[in-house]
Please model this.
Amino acid sequence: MITPPKSTKSPSVSTLVLDNWNRGRVSVFDENRGLINGLDESLNVWLTQDGVAEPRPGLKLYGVQPENEIIGITEVVSVENGWPVNYLLSVQRDPKAKKAYVYYAKDGDKWKKAEGIEYTGDAIDAEYNFCQTDQKCLIFNGINKTHFFDFSTKTVKKFEKLTQPTDLKITKTGLTDGGVVLRYGITSQSYGETMPVYFTTQKVDRERNNWEAGKQTITLEWKCNDPNVQRFIIYVGNEVGKEQYLADVANDGSGSFKFTDTGVLFAQPGTTAPEADTSEGIVGRRGTNINGTVYVLGDIKNPWRIYYDGGTPKTALNFSYSGGGWIDVAPGGKDLPNAVVDFRTGKGDPVPTIFLQGTNGFGSMKHLLSDTITIGEVPIPSIKVQDANGREGTDAPNAILKYQESLHYLSKNGVFTTGTQPNIQSILSTTKSSATISRDFEKLNTKNLSKASGIVYDGKLIWALPVGTKENNQIWLQDLDRGGAWMLPWMIPAKFLLHYGSNDGKTHQLAIVNNKVCEFDYDAMAIDVNKTFETKVKTSKVYFSKQNDYSRVLTVSVDLINPVGDITVAVRGFTRRREIQKVIRKKFRDQTKILGWGDKFSFSSLKDLGWGKTRPFSQERTTETKNIVLKINKDLKWVSVEISSQGAIRYGVHKIRVRHVPIGYLPEKGVGDE
Model:
């Protein structure tokens, strides 16, 4: 008797679903060890919604374009008739004249040249940075002494060199010759300060703090007829170059001046006579306005020096000790200050914070703290330097971004975030947020990172970077609202990124690309100034089990949100013998809806009212999902899916579904086996 065969269940069909890419681009792993919610490639795309990959915003021209090359640009706010008016201010290079000039523009209008100063020589190739204060915008290039754009006259001005005091005369009273040396120096001061000139050195019989009131004095006399001098600063000390601030005398316009030292005033510790003439301004590479005080760094002759002004209307841009002063940060060390930002200590106290650039991607961070020294019961304000907790340095001083009370900054070793961590009070902590793209950072060069630029938009950190080149050629995006996912590259050679608030209340994210002032266009398809760009989303190899078991892959389906244009889907997989690939290309048309009576009837009288005109519904109301299905029918160990486009398109990668039947272990065949 023949035994009938037993019935068996049909194999179950499983569906592997990939429905978000919230880990973004992941380059730290090779393709075989990629993350299921990460991407192996993400060209010209970003994340929206809960992890949907879509083409990035396009670019459109903003306003009237400049005739010359932009080598520096910023936004400034001028107060006119009591109201703020926003402008774009830029330095532009004229290659024919081999000169550079300052221009300004408002709301996309034509650029206007600001008369007063022109840049020549090495200055036309310099890096330009800006800092607004006291209704002026300081212009720094590391070469010229301080220039500024004056808002009231719309011209570029410079500080005028001051005249030093002359006809110095010194007279001692009640003092005899002795072994105590007293050196008195005097400077002229306005916005800056001249080098000191010295009175005849005195040798007396007692220290200043031992003088008897009304009996022992030294009287200083001098002349100066310069009307631009605001005051004269007097220094005193025992050693050459170590004289300290003693007092100041206002310029009353008389031309002849006198000061009597009675020994009552204390020389202020931490202050010394100027080593250079700053009356024409100071040389700096960049400056920052923090709570009204301007901090400047980048003095070529004093690279560790930070200058700061007085921070009040009367002492604005006064970098002398009668207004502000200067301090050397880690002088003589291998780390050099390259940025000052407005931040805080771990306790939350607001302080100026200094970034220092080291070597090999390392560096440090320090705070400038207000301090008080008491001498003879007299409190004297001063500034001291303190190491910041959990700090790193930066190689990209123009691309330090602040978001949600944390600093985000770049170095050759990655992107670091400094802030207060949960459950860790009163201490700043620094974490590295670029571990998933560490291989991409290997393409960056420390020397060129100073050209990096960045902005924050809608929870996203957007950086323009020089990747393997000397100039910025790519944009990298870190999406903090989606777990810090990285999306890169965007193939945009943006020289500068900045925000501009036009005077109609709109905010524009601007990019200077190929010397064009462009604006990110969030409504357009994949177009950069009338030129389409390529997009690509590619998953890593997705295995069906940790044991590398095989599955019979039936179909791969890609669900797309509102697709428009030619979209290509490529599926790769590994059979028992070799890697295979299947490709399909599909064209999607724009499913525009028609609103109004004109869709069925023709009423010419309603034409001017807009009825019958083509108007697309908003995406939120008419979202449509289309799918592309590829039939595979192969035994595969893994699959990888790539979605790409070339042309004016729009789409969102909603889901990737792999329908398969698990098989289990299968021995691999040789190349010649079938």
